[in-house]
Automatic annotation (TrEMBL):
Annotated InterPro entries: NadA (IPR003473), NadA_sf (IPR036094), Quinolinate_synth_type2 (IPR023066)
Keyword vocabulary terms for this entry: 4Fe-4S, Cytoplasm, Iron, Iron-sulfur, Metal-binding, Pyridine nucleotide biosynthesis, Transferase
GO molecular function: transferase activity
Pathway this chain belongs to: Cofactor biosynthesis; NAD(+) biosynthesis; quinolinate from iminoaspartate: step 1/1
Primary residence: cytoplasm
EC number assigned by the record: 2.5.1.72
Cofactor dependence: [4Fe-4S] cluster
Record-given protein name: Quinolinate synthase
Similarity comment: Belongs to the quinolinate synthase family. Type 2 subfamily.
Keyword tRNA processing belongs to the record: no
Cofactor note: Binds 1 [4Fe-4S] cluster per subunit.
Encoding gene, per UniProt annotation: nadA
Lineage of source species: Bacteria, Pseudomonadati, Pseudomonadota, Alphaproteobacteria, Caulobacterales
Subcellular localization, as worded in the UniProt entry: Cytoplasm
Length: 360
């Protein structure tokens, strides 16, 4: 029986969504798909009419990631795409700091987020006033800020980074400023994992990603016992002992790259839950095994509110121009650095030197 008939879809919806079903059918049930497929077809029609593009983060659910995302990827990739795109309207299928970053890089475009409450525990762990205090206590040191921060914080920053380029950015900043120590905020675990890859000393802040901080070395040991053949890949926002117990550590882009090129038989991705579902759609034959943790902020974005966002042009994200101008300089410096030769990985063998981190 044809795909549309088997799932009870009308002919036009079936035609417009068959290619998406091929990617998500292992992760989405036919019952869910009967509701999702018409929404996907409607969103894709609305965005064409509006001249909009949808930037979808790797942590979106598979029906969003594969169904309506024009560009998909990690924070760095999406920020670059926002600047490159000719579209007048950008819909950020991600969290609020990502929409702000798009607006900072593309002030002439309308940037919409489907739910204004889509926040981030890292972004809310620090304010611009906190960064001013840090700079007063450590004058003369460059401030490198993870892109998971508000515009206000980026405006106090010398250069931004993501987990895909953090080591490269820290080493660049130390060279440019002629110092042996760099302020890297706000994720404490990312800072510690970066410090393990470089001889540059790191001054860190006690911010945490509420998704990645929950993973423990015991989780990894339990997975190894239950699935002895599985390869375990961890994100650098996890604690150091989780990375040390894993087979590979890297950004979401590096994890995708690893799975796509090595095609392990069984793999565990120690990161947000939807990442495995999305990568699975692109690499059939690899078995993805839990555990995973959901990001409650990312999960605020749904097909329904993306549709409403396009219909009602809501919710627009703006950044005051004086803040945007300073934040833009920090983001643009990062974007202008040459891309790392391979998606950043956190080499667990190189990490055995003295690690110099001071919490502020
Ligand atoms: S996964 Fe962590 S860093 Fe990403 S948005 Fe959620 S809380 Fe923030």
């Amino acid at each position: 029986m044809a795909y549309g008939d088997a799932l009870g879809l009308d002919e036009a919806t079936a035609r417009d969504t068959a290619h998406v079903w091929d990617k998500v059918k292992g992760r989405v049930t036919p019952l869910e798909w009967r509701l999702q497929a018409p929404l996907i077809a409607e969103i894709n029609r609305l965005k064409r009419q509006a001249g909009a593009v949808i930037l979808a983060h790797n942590y979106m659910t598979p029906e969003i990631f594969h169904g309506v995302g024009d560009y998909v990827g990690d924070s760095l990739g999406l920020a670059k795409e926002a600047a490159r795109s000719d579209a007048k309207i950008i819909v950020q299928a991600g969290v609020h700091f990502m929409a702000e970053t798009s607006k900072i890089l593309s002030p002439e475009k309308t940037v919409l987020i489907p739910d204004l409450r889509a926040g981030c525990s890292l972004a809310s762990s620090i304010t611009g006033a906190d960064v001013r205090l840090i700079k007063a206590r450590r004058p003369g040191l460059p401030v490198v800020t993870y892109v998971n921060t508000t515009a206000d914080v980026k405006a106090e920053t010398d250069i931004c980074c993501t987990s895909a380029n953090a080591v490269q950015v820290v080493e660049w900043a130390a060279r440019e400023w002629g110092v042996d120590r760099v302020i890297l905020i706000p994720d404490e675990y990312l800072a510690r994992n970066v410090a393990a890859q470089t001889t540059v000393g790191i001054i860190a802040w006690k911010g945490r990603c509420e998704v990645h901080e929950r993973f423990t070395a015991q989780d990894i040991a339990d997975m190894r016992e239950a699935y002895p053949g599985a390869e375990i890949l961890a994100h650098p926002e996890c604690p150091e002992e989780v990375l040390a117990a894993s087979d590979f550590a890297g950004s979401t882009a590096a994890m995708s790259d690893y799975v796509a090129t090595k095609k392990p038989k069984q793999v565990v991705l120690i990161t947000e839950c939807s990442m495995a579902s999305n990568v699975a759609g692109d690499v059939p034959g690899v078995e993805f095994i839990g555990p995973c943790n959901l990001c409650p902020h990312m999960k605020r974005i749904t097909l329904e509110n993306i549709r409403d966002c396009l219909v009602n042009r809501q919710f627009e994200v703006t950044v005051p121009e004086d803040i945007a101008a300073r934040a833009r300089q920090a983001v643009q410096r990062m974007v202008d650095l040459p891309p790392p030769p391979i998606p950043a990985r956190y080499d667990l063998v190189r990490a055995r030197h003295h690690v110099d981190v001071e919490l502020i």
